[in-house]
Amino acid sequence: MQYNNGQYYQQPGYQPYQVPYQGGQPYYQQQQPYAAQQPNMAQYGASPAVPFPTTFASPPAQPTPIQPSRPARTHTPHPHRRHTNAGATSNGQQRPLRSAMKKVERAHTTAVPLARTRTHSGGENRSRLNSIARTRTSSSSGHAKPPDHLFVTIEPPNELILYNIAYPYTIDEIKERLFPMWQPGISHQETWGSNWRVKFAGSPWNLKGSDSIMVHRMMIQLFWVLVNQGYVYLTTIQAGRALKSPRLVFIRSLPDPGAHFFAMSFNSAGDRLTFVNAPDGLALNLGLYLRSTFPRRIEHDEQVLDGVFHLSLKKSDESAGRRQKSFPRPCPEALQ
């Protein structure tokens, strides 16, 4: 073998190592030696030859004796409550195991009935936490919420019908206020559910003759009774057939006994405007306004009865030489 100094050294050969065998007969295991490396010794000159060991033949194979195996070690658990022998008696003897198929006799006990007393579930007796404060309404038909709307129908020639009446005393006040105003009297009346119908004698809704002023006063009184009961006029609807009378819709509100109502109507020809129970100065101011706007079209404006004011047009238009059939368009707008 050559090292860094450039010299060559002979590597000694390896000798076989004998491993003693612990058992029956000895066994020699021979290790194959490494092949000796022959360096080039020509540069060193002649030197005595070094004998190298020859290769030994392996001894014949011998049966390897099998060492008897040790029994496996039994794992001993650590002492713990669940590993303790709960079935042992006080003297250390093991209790016999109980069969799982055998029924265990238990003492007979009386079963407690599964029942509880009923608690109060009413809204007044039950306390609520973190709830919105509201008034509890009953769900029974006898304590239903009063209706919010009232419907009035004037059926010619003599019927007055009220639908969806909330309180009976509304009918009582209408009877007290309206019935004495109609001199011919009442021919028939009936009540079904929350509705009420009354038939007046004669034909009051035709508005003919002197009865027309009284009919206007009756309508004014009807509106006052309803507003005194907490109803205000909302709108007029046409339900059903085209020739059927419309319905006046009233909605619940706060009572207002100090409210003032008046009636305004045109005659069939359309040339006379009548005010009944109008506020002081309303009809007079309207007449002055129309005279200044249309100086040649107003014939007269005067109070004919107590609380009744007429405003009439001329029969013919002198400036155009033609007949004026109805009031000019600004007349209703002047009332706003």
TrEMBL record:
This is Uncharacterized protein. It comes from Bondarzewia mesenterica. Residues 86-96, 128-142 have a biased composition (Polar residues). Residues 48-100, 114-149 are annotated as: Disordered. It comes from the Eukaryota. Residues 72-84 have a biased composition (Basic residues). PANTHER family: MEDIATOR OF RNA POLYMERASE II TRANSCRIPTION SUBUNIT 13.
